[in-house]
Amino acid sequence: MNRKQQKDFRLVMWILGLILAAYIAGRPLYWHLTEGFAAVRRDTSHPCPPCRCDCSLQPLISLPEGLTNNSIIDCMRQDPEVSEEMQNGFLDLLSEEVKLKEAEALEKHRRADMALLEAKKLASQYQKEADKCNSGMETCEEAREKSEEALESQRKVTALWELRARQRGWNSQ
After folding, report:
1. Nearest 10 degrees: Cα torsion 162, 167, 171, 172
2. Cα separation of 124 and 130, whole Å?
3. How many helices, marked H, and strands, marked E, lie in the chain?
4. What is the distance between the alpha carbons of residues 154 and 160, in angstroms, rounded to a whole number?
5. How large a percentage of the chain has pLDDT more than 90?
6. Is the model's pLDDT at 52 over the cut of 80?
7. Are 12 and 20 in contact (CB under 8 A)?
8. Nearest-CA neighbor of 75 among 59, 65, 64, 86?
9. Where in the chain are the domains?
10. Within 46-79, where are the H helices?
11. Is 171 helix (H, G, I), strand (E, B) or coil?
12. For this UniProt entry, which segments traverse the membrane (predicted)?
């Protein structure tokens, strides 16, 4: 892009930005200004001052005591029965939660005990297998030692017989 194209592109982007800002902020601003002008026109067209009311605070129709809705006043006032009932309900919920947590902990403890017992069984089984293997190794070692002793005694006997045979004129060739 050359410089002229860059300037044109920037100008187009600025124009699009202004149009977008006018679109977003323009409509609420328009309605706000029209309401303001309408209020000014009403004030100038009606010269009378605002009305002053001396209305009593008592309602025109009074309801019996049981039918009135004083929920805000009831919420602000501490009713001992409701407070005690709410506290009992809260305590019941807490005790139920504690019981559930205790049951969950007992279940986890039971699972851990079962896993520990299973691990002990496996360890015992592996120990038995290791003992069998060790006793087998000891047996094999003893048999090897005996066979070495037997082989050595056979070599001695063979050497003795060979010596006697040579003395009597035997030749091994």
Report:
1. 10
2. 10
3. 3, 0
4. 10
5. 50
6. no
7. no
8. 86
9. 1-44, 96-173
10. 71-76
11. coil
12. 12-31
